[in-house]
Structure formats: C-alpha cells, structure tokens
Amino acid sequence: MQNSESVGAAAGALVLPRVMRQRLHDTVVDHLRNFIVEGVLAPGTKLNERELCETLGISRTPLREALKVLAAEGLIEISPNRGASVSRLSEAEAWETFELMSGLEAFAGELACERITPQELAEIKALHYAMLACRAQNDLPGYYSRNQEIHDRINEAARNQLLRQTYLSLNRRLKAMRFRSNHQTDKWDRAVHDHEEMIRALEARDGKRLAAILRQHLLDKRAAVMQIHPDPTGGAPAVPNA
C-alpha cells in the first residue's frame, strides 16, 4: 500500500510540472503572437532572445519552444546562422493570400447559413455588440479581438474541418495586416458596416448574401493593406492584376 501511495505521489509530482509547463508555453506563444499582430514586433524585426526573455520574465527554453510554434505558423523565420525574425509577406504573397482567404470566408459563410444553431447565432450577435462598444471607445485591440472571433465563429459554424484547418493556417499570416488596416477611421467604420450586414445575412440564413459580403470584406481589407503598405518587403511596388 505504501508503495502504491508513493508511486501515486511521484506520478502526481510528475504531472503537475507538465501542466504548468504547458500553460507557460501557451502563454508565451499567445504573448508573442499578439506582439506580432499588434505591430509591437514589426515584419522583418530580428528577435533578441535576451530582451524577449526579460520582457516576458522567462528563461530561454520556453521562449525557444514558443518560437518553434510561431515558425510552424509562418509568423517568424528561424535561420541557423541569423536567428529568428518576424516574417513578412511580399506584395504578391499578401495579394494572393487575401484573395484565397476571401474565397474561404465566402464558402464558410454559405455553409454557416445552412448549419449555424440559434445558440451560435446569439453568441455571434453578442460579440458584435461588444465589438461596437470597443469601436465607440476607440479600443482597437478590443475591437480587433472581437472582430476576429466573429469571423472565427462563422468559420466554425460551417462545420467543415478541412476548410477550418486551411482557414486557420492562412489567417495567422494575415492577422497583423488585418489589424493595421483598421487604423484609418473611414476604413474602420466601413468594416463595422460590413459586420452589421453580416449579422443580417446570418439571421436571414441568406448564404449567397453572406458569401458576397465576406468576399468583398476581405478584398477591401486587401486594398486597405496595399494602400498603407504598398510593398511589405520594401522593394519597388508591383501590384498583380486583380
């Protein structure tokens, strides 16, 4: 009996650090991802491990683990000789990624109108009103967080796992650009109007209408991004044909 108890205690002692380590890992990933999305770490920025460790109050091991996750998401690039830096999309890559995302969101909108539950719709509407409150307070991070959750909930409501996996992978690469596109008041207000139209289409279960709104919404985001950052790589502008 004593042996069993000691084994159980030892097992418990092993499990607890794993849980705490995983929480630390997730927290570090979330912080770094937010730094990139909100522009604290701009595209092309070389990451200084010592400074990041001091900022986050962590050792280099969890930082390096987090960097590997973000590298897999395409948010940073790790070079054996040059270390890690924040990824940046070329103009052509950004153009094509927004184009593809517009199609994915449109398709998700059509499916969501067929499959969304009343509870899911109510939750999306609550997020919409919370987003409007953030807009009224000029709270861009709060607004953006709720904005993105609305898009995410619509995608979830489509109930297509392959679509969702593709959407999540692409959206990680566009989040920073989508965040920055709302800095201009007129474009911010236009995005709010688009979201109001999205809610109406969802309530009406009008898949074709929601698909058209979502597609144009993403293409407008692309236009805003290209206007603010005509060439993310810093080279000569070369906008592909629409």
Descriptive overview:
The chain has two domains: 2-86, Arc Repressor Mutant, subunit A; 91-228, Four Helix Bundle (Hemerythrin (Met), subunit A) (Up-down Bundle). Helix content is 75%, strand content 3%. It has helices spanning 2-37, 49-56, 60-72, 91-115, 118-136, 140-157, 161-180, 185-204, 207-228; strands spanning 76-79, 83-86. It has a two-stranded antiparallel sheet with strand order 1-2. The longest helix has 36 residues, at 2-37. The termini are far apart. Mean pLDDT is 84; it is low at 1-20 and 232-242.
Strand content: under 5%
Q: Categorize the overall geometry.
A: globular
Strands of the widest sheet, in order across it, are 1-2
In CATH, the topology of the largest domain is named Four Helix Bundle (Hemerythrin (Met), subunit A)
Please outline the major beta sheet.
Answer: 2 strands, antiparallel
**Domain module tally:** 2
Mean pLDDT: 84
CATH superfamily of the largest domain: GntR ligand-binding domain-like
| Span of the ends, CA to CA | 74 Å
Order of helices and strands: HHHEEHHHHHH
Q: Structural class, judged by helices and strands?
A: mainly alpha
